[in-house]
Design goal:
Elements (H helix, E strand, L loop, with lengths): L38 E4 L6 E3 L10 H17 L5 E5 L9 E2 L6 E6 L6 E6 L9 E7 L4 E19 L5 E7 L5 E4 L2 E5 L9 E6 H9 L5 H9 L2 E19 L3 H15 L12 E4 L3 E3 L6 H18 L2 H9 L14 E4 L3 E4 L11 H17 L4 H19 L14 H4 L9 H17 L3 H13 L9
Parallel strand pairs: 9-11
Antiparallel strand pairs: 1-2, 3-13, 4-7, 5-6, 6-13, 7-13, 8-9, 8-12, 8-13, 10-11, 14-15, 16-17
Protein name: heparosan-N-sulfate-glucuronate 5-epimerase
Family: Belongs to the D-glucuronyl C5-epimerase family.
GO cellular component, one term: Golgi apparatus
Length: 469
């Protein structure tokens, strides 16, 4: 038998494909960010996770959003193409499968005024008590809804779910700025109050939405049980609007990773960054960050995502945003950036830019991976700037990596050096992150330090310890 300190041992075995800025991001194809307990839900307005980490009301946390996007990009590459059930493509004149709730309601095929594509126009009451214009689905497997829709006046889309015990729940996607609300068996997700007369490309993992709504009222175990036996019974639309490309699929990873990339394009500030808008108390009264701080890890993982969005779409907007994100790396932590200096000599990009500096290892390495991705994919002068930042960071990492070796595991940060406090040992799952990062660094840099450290740190997970004197 073998003894392990972590719940999973998914380290690479055998020859591995070379890391590429256009490829799978580390082992993120195994991640499901939206299922994490500290994800309140996936916003219907922004299409990205809302985090409850450090703030129970929820906030948009750049690291979590980037990881969500990177996981779906990686799954887009690694998983088989999804089966798709077309519910409406706008090309059929026969619409009898759509059931009208009354004689005043209408549904018809027509050509879109701007694109000459076939679309379906619908008109019925907007009241959510109205059953809506409904199409039966009866689907247990293909549980991701995608559609293009434009509401001419107020309206909504409803997914009717039937649980294993026969209960009916309704998930309403409504023109509202409210994030999520559960009332009895009606679950509401806002998709924006200002979205009338605008095309919306709506992609929802219906069972993720259902699960997050159930946890507002039910225990985790009960909500999981209710979700596991549920099926999509029908899709309903209300109000006056136009729809096209209505489908159910097993997954829609490309849509979801582009939602995350588009979030970063929309919300990049004038400094090129994505500020974290909640307080972070790394060590209360010693290392605290007020709302508005930047994270080098957040910048780096956003860059990794934006580079991949460019690869997938060939849209330069993503690469331009990635280039702008470099500016934060030059600003000292003490002046609102992420740059720290160790011994006034070594450049370190801070996940948490505290004073005194914290020097969190995994966040620093993730920032370096983002810089590597950009230097490989961008053109001059952005590629030269990314390369300079990357090379400076790698020089630092080679000098400081041994400081994180405890002899039995690793340190999460260097607070014991900078703040004179007890060491902050990395729990085993974080130690495993350090090891996975070393697997990647071995590919990027031939310095034997990385290979030797990798083997030693892997040994710690099996109970090995460094020798004593």
């Amino acid at each position: 038998f073998s003894f392990h300190h972590s719940y999973q041992d998914d380290f690479p075995t055998g020859p591995q494909p070379r890391y590429s800025p256009s490829g799978v991001f580390m082992s993120f194809d195994l991640y499901s960010v939206e299922d994490r307990n500290r994800v309140k839900c996936v916003s219907g307005i922004e299409g990205v996770p809302i985090s409850t980490q450090w703030e129970r009301k929820g906030h948009y946390y750049p690291i979590q959003i980037a990881q969500y996007g990177l996981s779906h990009y990686s799954k887009h590459l690694s998983q088989p193409r999804s089966k798709v059930k077309i519910l409406e493509d706008g090309e059929q004149t026969e619409l009898s499968d759509w059931l009208l709730p009354d004689r005043k309601s209408e549904i018809r095929s027509r050509m879109d005024d701007n694109t000459d594509n076939g679309v379906v126009e619908f008109k019925t009451a907007t009241n959510l008590k109205n059953p809506g214009i409904t199409k039966s689905a009866n689907e247990k497997i293909l549980l991701t809804l995608s559609m293009d829709i434009m509401f001419i006046n107020n309206g909504s889309v409803t997914v009717l779910l039937q649980t294993g015990d026969g209960n009916l729940f309704r998930i309403h996607y409504i023109l509202s700025d409210n994030i999520i609300k559960l009332e009895g068996k009606d679950l509401y997700y806002g998709i924006g109050s200002n979205m009338k007369r605008k095309w919306i490309h709506l992609t929802r993992q219906v069972m993720v939405d259902f699960q997050k709504g159930l946890t507002l009222q039910y225990s985790k175990n009960r909500s999981m049980k209710m979700k596991s036996a549920a099926r999509i019974a029908a899709i309903c639309v209300r109000g006056h609007g136009i729809m096209d490309n209505v489908s159910l699929s097993f997954h829609a990873h490309k849509d979801l990773f582009l939602d995350a990339a588009n979030y970063f394009v929309r919300h990049q500030d004038s400094k090129g960054g994505w500020p974290v808008k909640v307080t972070r108390k790394l060590i209360p009264e010693v290392m605290e960050l007020e709302p508005g701080w930047y994270s080098a890890m957040g910048q780096g993982q956003a860059i990794s995502l934006l580079v991949r969005a460019y690869v997938a779409s060939k849209n330069n907007t993503y690469l331009e945003a990635a280039g702008k994100a470099l500016d934060i790396f030059d600003i000292p932590s003490s002046k609102g950036g992420v740059l720290a200096k160790f011994l006034n000599s070594f450049d370190w990009y801070e996940e948490y830019p505290t004073t005194p500096s914290s020097f969190v290892l995994n966040g620093f390495i993730y920032s370096l991976i983002g810089l590597y991705d950009l230097k490989q994919m961008a053109t001059s002068p952005v590629s030269e700037k990314a390369a300079e930042l990357y090379n400076n960071g790698m020089r630092t990492l080679k000098a400081m990596l041994p400081m994180f070796d405890s002899g039995t595991g690793t340190f999460y940060d260097l607070r014991h050096i900078t703040a004179g406090l007890a060491p902050n040992r990395a729990r085993w799952d974080y130690h495993k992150v350090h090891i996975k990062q070393l697997y990647l660094l071995v590919q990027l840099d031939s310095d034997p330090l990385f290979k030797d450290t990798l083997q030693r740190w892997k040994g710690y997970m099996k109970g090995n310890i460094a020798p004593h004197n």
